[in-house]
Amino acid sequence: MLNFFQLILIYAGIYAIMAIGQNCITGYTGMLSLCHAGFFCIGSYATAIMCKTFGLSFWLSLPVAAIATGLIGLLIGIPTLRLKGDYLCIATLGLGEIIRNIATNLNPVGYNSIPRASLFGYQFASRNKVAFIILIWAFVLIFYVLFQQLAHSRLGRAMIAVREDEVAAQSNGINVTKYKISSFVLGAAVGGIAGCLQTAYTLTVQPGSYTFMVSVMVLCTVVLGGMGNAKAVILGAFIIQLISYLPQLTGLTNVIPAQAKQIIYGLLLVVMMLCRPQGILGRDRFRYGDPRTRREKLHDFFIRPAGKAREARHENP
Amino acid sequence: MGEILKIDGISVSYGSIRALSDVSMSVEEGAIVSLIGANGAGKSTLLNAIVGLVPLKEGSISFSGETICQTKHHGLTTDMIARKGIALVPEGRHVFSDMTVEENLDMGAFMVRDQELIARRKEEMYDFFPILGARRKQKTRSLSGGEQQMMAIARALMSGPRLLLLDEPGLGLAPLIVQDIFHKIRIINEENKVTVFLVEQNARLALRSSSYGYVLENGRIVLQDSGEALLRNERVQKAYLGA
């Protein structure tokens, strides 16, 4: 049982990193992209090839994976980001599949026995899960802080302006294309790093593990937690992983088929859209110029709808 | 003073539908110039063409002597045009409704890097539109239509533009508020030395405030004269002033 919780912690961490990347694209800039499995795949493969074929250490292949994924994100982004909404969604969905097919044709069995990552002489072995939990959650923390800072920076404000209203953003001198592409490349690179970490844990890569379902799960994670809120997507990653390991956790593997999780995801999304479309935690507010006291913030954080009603009364005396 | 905006024989099409044909006009620096016309005459298309939101089929547009829009892909992008000093207050206001008034004004000053200048301009805006000062921490979606329109104008002024383009500033607002907004526009023009080019269906109010006016019908300029002369013009009176 403990073993399972450790596994969930590891995968929740990896998915949290991916979801932070997806959140940058979908939550901040408002682009509905569905190819995070592709970025995950590129990150994993780049790490596998760098570690195995070129004999690079894990720590050197990490930036290589991030840069490779970012570059491919750029290549994909330049033509597709002209599209909007559903069209962008379909185009990126196709591109995610293309990446997976290329990976399959490159090497149908994938790569095995990839050298282990090590830090200060300590080797990260797959059976020592605690070490991986620390490694992966350290990355989650780094990306959480980075993207939290980003949301309140000039770059983040421009992204949010693009999401809110493209015409207004443009007439205020914001280069919409530039910020859309920056956001896409950043999100892709973070997805690549998630792939890199996964490779370090499993030490194998197989093209079969980067299906469209992975992209859907990442998007679900963001929608479930709350778009544009880094804290929320980490919570979402936990919930999604708990659901995906539900049969094993409850010891009912014989009763609940593995496919049941897809039904639960679907149901969860429908219920979320009906009852709480803004996600469990909702959107993150701008930090600067926030007049609320700490108590009010906590109040809004836990009892948001009630807090909103109070805010509305306050605004219209 | 010379002309700040020159539109030279432009045509715009949406697919096979021609929205503007061979439109030429100019805006003198420091003036208020208005463009009047009925629904579907092509007024908004003209403003969108100036800021590069719709591509030109023919002709060119220049801003203080420099060509900003040309046919096909030779023109500048909208954000580049904004950086030249043209601020558009789009039709329907296009406010960032999830942001507060203050954050909206901050977005308006996106091109300005000087924090002190931004703070000073914000204070000026709060003085000029006291209602915005009172509502600075409120989300824009909770503002009334007139307040949102004032905020859209204030946001456009935050970048310190030389030319302010207003697309139907009176749309959907109560007559008294429309008058207040036009009053403010005249003050902006006189005191801040901002040239104003506005598109409006409320022809009487628009022409009264303007030194020069153009009448657009079915994508063509059919009349042009000083604001006063147009107000007396028989054709304008019949079609737009209900006389």
Keywords, please?
heterodimer, A: 317 residues, mainly alpha, ABC transporter involved in vitamin B12 uptake, BtuC, two-stranded antiparallel sheet, 14 helices, 2 strands, globular, B: 243 residues, alpha/beta, six-stranded mixed β-sheet, four-stranded antiparallel β-sheet, 38% helix
Task: Please describe what this structure looks like.
The complex is a heterodimer of chains A (317) and B (243). Chain A is built from 14 helices and 2 strands, in the order H-H-H-H-E-E-H-H-H-H-H-H-H-H-H-H. Chain A has 317 residues and is mainly alpha-helical. Chain A has one domain: ABC transporter involved in vitamin B12 uptake, BtuC, CATH 1.10.3470. A two-stranded antiparallel sheet of chain A has the order 1-2. In chain A, a hairpin with a 2-residue loop joins strand 1 and strand 2 (122-123). The longest helix of chain A has 27 residues, at 2-28. Residues 287-291 and 305-313 of chain A have low confidence and may be disordered. Chain B is α/β, with parallel strands linked by helices. Helix content of chain B is 38%, strand content 28%. Chain B has 10 helices and 10 strands. Chain B has helices at residues 43-50, 78-84, 101-108, 115-128, 130-134, 145-157, 175-191, 203-209, 227-232, 234-240, and strands spanning 3-14, 17-28, 32-37, 58-63, 66-69, 86-89, 163-167, 195-200, 212-217, 220-226. In chain B, the strands form 2 sheets. A 6-stranded mixed β-sheet of chain B has the order 6-7-8-3-9-10, with helices on both faces. A 4-stranded antiparallel β-sheet of chain B has the order 2-1-4-5, with helices on one face. The N and C termini of chain B lie far apart (35 Å). The mean pLDDT of chain B is 88. The interface between A and B is medium-sized, with 26 and 32 residues.
